[in-house]
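re: the backbone from monday

yeah here it is again, tokenized this time
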């Protein structure tokens, strides 16, 4: 005979107990609260990390794009230097008739500024930020992106290390050559055409010129290589050109947009012992620019003041300032405040004559030049007494200007 036992329903009776039921609900509520709190915190933390990773990615991509622009500028410089050199070589016998600016441009093309500094440099600040801390890159969960960044940094360093050591990029003359020439001709009027003729007879110069096209093409090819890294990183991270452009604007922005009423008035760009420059913006959207070059020379005491008067029109477009210069400028030469050293009267007379002739040629050239509106990124500080002009924007002619300038309100 099989005996059957009926087990008591202790669990049900236990749950029906009011005190136990309250404790159970409290436990469940607390558990859910903890889960929700930590779950939400984890979600928010992951979202913030993803946003930070995206910002870091755009910083690196912006560095790539800046490197591309730098390489393109180096390529343009090579093209310009070669064209100037060929221009003066074709006019070797009549070099005295070529403008001083053109000749000096060719001379600079052959001479290093310094023997102690690398000839070709790039900005490493973003790279150092990226590599200095794991927090700056561990938020990017993308192996393809990280490989591309590593290849970019390695390729860039190898390239610049190589060209700064390569004989194909070596300037014919170092900075010491220029210094020795100035010392030897101290107190004398420098004869640039004659100097350039001496340089052109040098084998190192001809070797440098023969490799100009190679340097130009190499810079262009490397620009394309770096551009491919940038395109890959944008694609794999889903970053659009518009998003990157907004990132750059926010990164470089240090003030707020300027109102027309705030811009009107006189602003000082530079005021030193050698240079004075100012802008005056008028209510009718025209402007006047005054630039004074205080010109010193070893053959006289005092300074010759060369004053340039420019006019044009202006307009504010959100966060940019558009300026279009008129084709006609007035230039004044004041040499009434100099004291000529004994025996140097004729040289100073010829020197002033050359200055006036070069300025005359400059005016003729500028009058033939088509008006172009340059657009600068422009913001004003909270006090309204200083304007920042971002000169790293491209104008309508396609030329690129680098750096930042500041206008100080004149009282």
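seq for it, each position gets an aa:
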């Amino acid at each position: 005979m099989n005996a059957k036992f009926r087990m008591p329903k202790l669990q049900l009776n236990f749950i029906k107990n009011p005190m136990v039921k309250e404790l159970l609900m409290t436990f469940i509520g607390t558990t859910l609260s903890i889960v929700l709190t930590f779950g939400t915190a984890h979600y928010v933390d992951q979202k913030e990390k993803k946003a930070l990773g995206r910002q870091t990615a755009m910083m690196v991509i912006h560095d790539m794009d800046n490197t591309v622009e730098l390489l393109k500028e180096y390529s343009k410089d090579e093209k310009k230097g070669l064209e100037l050199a060929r221009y003066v070589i074709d006019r070797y016998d009549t070099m005295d008739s070529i403008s001083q600016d053109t000749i000096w441009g060719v001379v600079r093309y052959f001479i290093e500024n310094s023997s102690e500094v690398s000839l070709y440099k790039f900005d490493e600040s973003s790279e150092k930020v990226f590599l200095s801390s794991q927090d700056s890159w561990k938020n990017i969960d993308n192996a393809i992106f990280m490989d591309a960044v590593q290849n970019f940094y390695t390729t860039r360093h190898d390239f610049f290390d190589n060209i700064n050591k390569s004989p194909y990029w070596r300037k014919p003359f170092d900075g010491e050559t220029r210094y020795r020439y100035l010392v030897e001709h101290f107190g004398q009027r420098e004869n640039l055409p004659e100097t350039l003729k001496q340089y052109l007879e040098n084998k190192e110069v001809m070797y440098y010129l023969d490799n100009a096209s190679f340097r130009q093409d190499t810079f262009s090819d490397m620009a394309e290589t770096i551009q491919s890294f940038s395109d890959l990183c944008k694609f794999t991270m889903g970053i659009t050109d518009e998003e990157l452009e907004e990132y750059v604007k926010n990164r470089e922005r240090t003030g707020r947009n300027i109102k027309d009423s705030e811009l009107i008035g006189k602003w000082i760009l530079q005021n030193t012992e050698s240079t004075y420059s100012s802008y005056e913006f008028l209510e009718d959207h025209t402007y006047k620019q005054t630039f004074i070059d205080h010109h010193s020379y070893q053959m006289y005491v005092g300074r010759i003041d060369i004053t340039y008067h420019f006019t044009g029109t202006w307009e504010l477009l959100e966060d940019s300032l558009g300026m279009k210069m008129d084709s006609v400028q007035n230039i004044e030469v004041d040499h009434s405040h100099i004291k000529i050293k004994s025996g140097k009267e004729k040289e100073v007379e010829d020197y002033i004559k050359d200055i006036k002739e070069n300025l005359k040629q400059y005016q003729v050239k500028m009058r033939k030049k088509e008006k172009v509106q340059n657009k600068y990124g422009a913001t004003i500080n909270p006090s309204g007494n200083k304007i920042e002009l971002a000169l790293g924007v491209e104008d309508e002619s396609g030329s690129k200007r680098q750096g930042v300038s500041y206008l100080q309100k004149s009282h």
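Confidence is low (pLDDT under 50) at residues 1-12, 39-45, 393-399. The first helix runs from residue 10 to 16.
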